[in-house]
């Protein structure tokens, strides 16, 4: 295993504890953080990464995306969700082939790496291609092939469960079920997924209460709220990661908390599709729900940057509540790292000896983050753009000094540009 020394880091910021320390060396070997110390030890390293004027942090988690949608970025802007989905996205998706998904996932992965994301949840077509791309780049992923009733033949429950149950999860890639939503799956299908998830201890991602329309439809069809329907189908558990949760009541929030369901907050996607409501993040957090951040796919954001989503999410919460004291940058970074990793089922990556070495460095010379020394690091990097310089996942160097080492970035961009011509 590669041994890496992050040498002389100007700032080491542990998002888990909020501790900010200066001028330290971080030693990484066997996939773990071995030591964080002021002095140089006899540690032999394959890579010495100079970290003067860099901040070292745990990697960010993007807990809701559809990575291969990078192909459709910009092709369905400025439309409401149903029109966006039914008139633009689904017809495009019918033309999607495995080779498209492979190159589109690679581009998405490059974007994630450059945004300091070390782990993500994906829910899209041709997930085997996504896994191939993810393994070549080296990030962690929770991969949940979508399940529909009626829309897509390859994505019925029987197809997806055969695929998921035949896959092996490893330290970097885990497989789960991705029932799209309550409105695109029958109740019996949701019940079967609930039973399979429990029996095989498999994670589930689902779009929950994304729009007021889907809640109204659920009440009309079943006489109950979406969260109550999921409970009835056995789909509320610590294995469930629900995306959006914009239109949830206090009673639903308590239920999500009681069942230890994780929620992915996707403010940019919600605002771009003009869904009207704002996910009740302060209440979700207060009740103890594990909230994290998701960008959603590139066709509804259009960026995969978690830091950008954090900024917009914090501003949205503050603005809509007339309360600038709500959700501070250090809390946002805690939930974007610790909560995100827990929601995806990945190991603790706090910057402490013995934890998973999923580490990023950020460039403190980025003009927008050069501030007075009294400004805490979280405020500097959350409220203004910052460049990611190095990315290490499970002790493996993925990007060093801005250069991705695991795949050929230029080649991936060329292949992607070519694939765009097919749509
Ligand atoms: Zn989504």
Describe the model.
The protein is built from 14 helices and 18 strands. With 423 residues, it is of the alpha/beta class. It folds into two domains: 4-59 and 349-404, Urease, subunit C, domain 1, CATH 2.30.40.10; 61-344, TIM Barrel (Alpha-Beta Barrel), CATH 3.20.20. The longest helix is centred in the N-terminal third of the chain and has 17 residues, at 98-114. The model has no long low-confidence stretch (mean pLDDT 96). Helix content is 37%, strand content 23%. The structure holds zinc ion. It holds the Pfam family Amidohydro_1.
Task: Please report the distance between the alpha carbons of the first and last residues.
Answer: 42 Å
Rg, rounded, reads 21 Å
Oligomer: single chain
pLDDT < 50 stretches: none
Number of strands: 18
C-alpha geometry: globular
**Main sheet attributes: strand count, strand direction, barrel closure:** 9 strands, mixed
Present as ligands are: zinc ion
What number of structural domains do the residues give?
Answer: 2
Overall structural class, as computed from helix and strand content, comes to: alpha/beta
At the first level of CATH, what is the class of the largest domain?
A: Alpha Beta
As for the CATH topology of the largest domain, it is TIM Barrel
List keywords for this structure.
single chain; 423 residues; alpha/beta; TIM Barrel; 2 domains; nine-stranded mixed sheet; nine-stranded parallel sheet; binds zinc ion
Overview in brief:
The protein has 423 residues and is an alpha/beta fold. It contains 14 helices and 18 strands.
